[in-house]
Design a protein that fits this description.
Structural class: alpha+beta
Shape: elongated
Largest sheet: 8 strands, antiparallel
Number of strands: 32
Number of domains: 5
CATH topology of the largest domain: Rossmann fold
Helix content: 25-40%
Strand order of the largest sheet: 11-10-16-7-8-15-12-13
CATH architecture of the largest domain: 3-Layer(aba) Sandwich
CATH superfamily of the largest domain: P-loop containing nucleotide triphosphate hydrolases
Distance between the termini: 61 Å
CATH class of the largest domain: Alpha Beta
Length: 602
């Protein structure tokens, strides 16, 4: 039973909503991981927000025991992965810990963009892949068309594809048999020196940091002294366990197995994902290749609506970072919004989820500034700076070039929407690199600046194709762009929270739209307020909010009224000039949100 040949480590990969978590539920139930009473839908999605949105955010692992038809007993280690592009680093990490993958394709929808991205990641790691056609209980299911698409678009043989239904449980036995018969067993020797991969880590209030590991060689047991090779720190293993899916303590993890260890670490930063763990007395000469650290690609400012909530926001961000190392933040202040934080995210869904969790779990009202990407600014003195916040762009005379990040986008769409999608991509400065067909579906490849995609590209794509198109991207790197900083001035004062980096060709139209929108959203004052959009010292757009005029003349009549009226009007004029000089214009929160919407529309 404990032989390494009887272990199967596999990941479940698919596009969003194709049924990964539901099929994981069926497999857990079939293998007796949980009783009927303990079962619930999406048992591996533990966060409230995952259950509400019906998406997986964190990859989860389960160890199950399965008795096959030939009478052998197998250990199955499942990793259920997220499907959304923002969490693709979770997927790559999970795939690295496995030898095989089961690819789930919705037989009513066919192959989608994220299906492609995840399959290519699995193929890069030499995974054996079992294709599964899910949702056969639905009337719209078309197995022949879906199989043909898998062969045409991905190039995987579908002769052994398994039709199943995560909802009814049909085909689950066939999937389990295919896993034990077709997927390879892990390689490794439990008599060798300990070599272990750190797959994930999270913070538990009672236990400290819990570390998920995959043992490659050797074995890891309680009271063993281990060493993290990237930091050279040594720890004593206090607890070894597996998820079944409930946590269960065991004495040791052998080579080929996946489980968790607790070593009394208190700081999540001490556990670097992808690190190699070895025995303290028997160090390894070479570390495992590990995986690239996830880098934030979208940045925005988070400010509390009520400035007294600043400390609460700081504590909330620190707590969320304990369970999500891919999210970063640092303090910043804005003259318009007060004290807040500049935060880095993996994408817009990631941003949305973090802000929603802050509002929900810590009861904080937030203002979110315009999301932006990281630009590389090359200065004349050969220095290169990473620019996250447009308001801190150096003087244009010091800048040699500005580089912006580009992505490689894959869009899969029914061909009747192709024209409008190509137009959308061209408007976003996209360069088409490939177009191929599978049946009546087109697979489009574009290279697009990330800044153009960050706001609303996915929303607009979904709305113009009635939800049928799917979109996935990977970062290509930075390229030189003709970019300028668009500053917004209200009453001749620059509002740093509204500054944005835009392409020179679009600067005038965006500037005009922002000024028009702010004119409607900023309330009138006793004095005239000019709203201007500027590039450097050059004003490119202007709107004016008229001031209230107080009637100071009604009570004046009788002799010499004309002169007295003139004096009063002159006095009022001077007062208005003084008010304009010293009066502070309050910019309401709706104005920031309104400008965000404009950026989206452009």
């Amino acid at each position: 039973m404990d032989s390494i040949n009887n272990i199967r480590n596999f990941a479940i990969i698919a596009h969003i909503d194709h049924g990964k978590s539901t099929i994981a539920d069926r497999i857990i139930h079939k293998c007796g991981g949980l009783t009927d009473r303990e079962m619930k839908a999406q048992v591996l999605d533990s966060m409230d927000i995952e259950r509400e949105r019906g998406i997986t955010i964190k990859a989860q692992t389960v160890k199950l025991t399965y008795k096959s038809k030939n009478g052998n007993e197998y250990i199955l280690n499942i990793i259920d992965t997220p499907g959304h592009v923002d969490f693709s680093y979770e997927v790559s990490r999970s795939l690295y810990a496995c030898e095989g993958s089961i690819l789930i394709v919705d037989s009513t929808q066919g192959v989608e963009a994220q299906t492609l991205a995840n399959v290519y990641q699995a193929l890069d790691m030499n995974h054996e892949i079992i294709p599964i056609l899910n949702k056969i209980d639905l009337p719209a299911s078309d197995l022949d068309r879906t199989s043909k698409q898998i062969e045409d678009v991905i190039g995987i043989d579908t002769n052994n594809a398994i039709p199943c239904s995560g909802k009814t449980g049909e085909g689950i036995d066939d999937i389990l048999e295919a896993i034990v018969n077709n997927l390879p067993a892990p390689k490794g020797d439990k008599n060798n020196k300990l070599k272990c991969l750190l797959v994930d880590s999270w913070y538990d209030t009672y236990l400290g940091v819990v570390t998920l590991v995959r043992v490659i060689d050797g074995k890891i047991n309680k009271n063993m002294k281990i060493k993290m090779m990237s930091t050279n720190q040594e720890y004593i293993v206090e607890k070894v366990g597996v998820f079944t899916p409930k946590p269960r303590d065991i004495n040791e993890l052998n080579s080929g197995e996946i489980g968790f260890i607790i070593t009394g670490i208190k700081n999540l930063s001490d556990t670097k994902v992808g690190d190699t763990i070895c025995e303290a007395d028997k160090p390894l000469e070479k570390t495992l290749p590990g995986f690239k650290p996830s880098k934030p690609v979208v940045f925005c400012g988070l400010f509390p609506v009520d400035s007294s909530d600043y400390q609460k926001l700081k504590d909330g961000l620190a707590k969320l970072q304990l369970n999500d190392a891919s999210f970063s933040f640092e303090a910043e202040s804005s003259s318009a919004l007060g004290l807040g934080f500049r935060c880095g995210f993996l994408g817009l869904l990631h941003l949305e989820i973090i802000t929603e969790r802050l509002e929900r779990e810590f009861d904080i009202n937030l203002i979110t500034t315009t999301p932006g990407v990281v630009y590389k600014v090359h200065l004349n003195n050969e220095k290169i700076i990473d620019l996250q916040n447009p308001s801190s762009l150096p003087d244009p005379t010091l800048i040699k070039i500005i580089e912006e990040p580009w992505i490689k986008a894959t869009i899969i769409t029914p061909d009747e929407y192709l024209g409008s999608i190509i137009k959308l991509c061209q408007n976003k400065r996209g360069i088409q690199t490939n177009l191929s067909y599978s049946g009546n579906r087109a697979v489009l490849n574009y290279e697009i600046p990330l800044n153009e995609v960050v706001f609303d590209f996915n929303d607009r794509l979904k709305s113009m194709t009635s939800g049928y198109a799917s979109f996935d991207y990977e970062i290509l790197g930075h390229r030189v762009g003709d970019l300028v900083k668009l500053s917004i001035l209200v009453n001749a004062e620059s509002v740093d929270a509204l500054a944005m980096m835009v392409h020179k060709d679009f600067a005038q139209s965006i500037g005009r739209d922002v000024c028009e929108k702010l004119k409607d959203l900023i309330p009138r004052h006793n004095f005239m307020i000019p709203i201007q959009a500027a590039i450097g010292g050059k004003i490119i757009a202007r709107e004016t909010i008229k001031g209230f005029k107080k009637d100071v003349l009604t009570k004046i009549h009788g002799g010499g009224a004309r002169d007295r009226k003139r004096k009063l009007l002159d006095k009022q004029k001077k007062g208005k000039v003084r008010a304009k000089q010293f009066g502070k214009v309050e910019i309401p929160q709706e104005a920031f949100i309104g400008v965000l919407k404009i950026s989206k529309e452009n």
